[in-house]
Specification:
The protein is an alpha+beta fold. The protein has helices spanning 45-55, 78-86; strands at residues 29-31, 62-64.
Length: 88
């Protein structure tokens, strides 16, 4: 932030979202890497929603990233199916 000359505009605070106190009542933007791999595992969506509900300016604030796309493709591994399922 300081290397880019933005110290007067951006404040970084370290800590768990549920445990920190901000020096302001509301924020304009929340930037978070909340998505786990495949959008499901290790997801921090609950924490981002907590932050949104507690600090984000209503009707004006934004969260980044704000959307995600998941592409799926069905694949069959006949040998693994046989080893793990068909033997029953």
């Amino acid at each position: 932030v300081s290397d880019n000359g933005m110290s007067d505009k951006i404040t970084l605070i370290r800590g768990k979202m549920e445990e920190i106190d901000l020096p302001v009542k509301q924020v304009d933007i929340i930037v978070s890497e909340w998505m786990g791999y495949f959008l499901l595992y290790e997801s921090m969506l609950n924490t981002v929603l907590y932050a949104r509900d507690r600090w984000l300016k209503p009707d004006e604030g934004i969260v980044f990233p704000d959307k995600a796309v998941m592409y799926l493709c069905a694949v069959e591994d006949e040998q693994m199916k046989y080893e793990r399922i068909d033997f029953w």
